Amino acid sequence: MPARSDRPHERRRRGGFALVELMVTSLVLMTGCVALVLSTSSTSLATYKAAQSTVAQNSLAWVEESLADVEYADLLSWNGVALDRGDHTARIAAQLVAPGLIGLEVTVADDRTGALLCRIATLRSGGA
User: Fold this and answer.
1) Which of 83, 100, 110, 121 is disulfide-compatible with 90, CB 3.0–4.6 A?
2) Whose CA is closest to 108, among 54, 48, 71?
């Protein structure tokens, strides 16, 4: 009959993982999962913000190109005009700064939140 070992350290080795080891492993795995979820959600938010900014910049460029074709004498009639561009609105402010000089400001705001997405101001000279 083979001799049985009754030494405590040999019995412990056969017992498998200790509870503390399992708790540490679970904590490491949970931390990794939380980090993965947070990075995914922050990436999604950054992608949404970049897309929103690109759309707003495109709208701003479109309004600028439209105003470039307007005669100087007609620019003041654009004051207060709001152009609906889907999920945001471009608003135009035009004012006479000095004789022969009109200031134009175009702002693009989110329709849902009212947040200002982008703005540009420029001066146009003409007429005497």
Assistant:
1) 83
2) 54
Structure token digits, residue 73: 């004498």
Question: pLDDT tens across 32-87, in order?
Answer: 999 998 888 888 888 888 888 888 888 888 888 888 888 988 989 999 999 988 88
What residues have CB less than 8 Å from 108, skipping those under 6 apart?
Answer: 56, 59, 60, 85, 88, 89, 90, 91, 116, 117, 118, 119
CA distance 94 to 75: 7
Q: Is residue 3 part of a domain?
A: no
Task: Determine if the pTM surpasses 0.70.
Answer: no
CB 106 within 8 A of CB 90: yes
Q: CB count, 10 Å around CB of 66?
A: 14
In a domain, 1, yes or no: no
Number of domains in the chain: 1
Question: What confidence tens digit (pLDDT) does each residue in 111-126 have?
Answer: 888 888 889 899 998 8
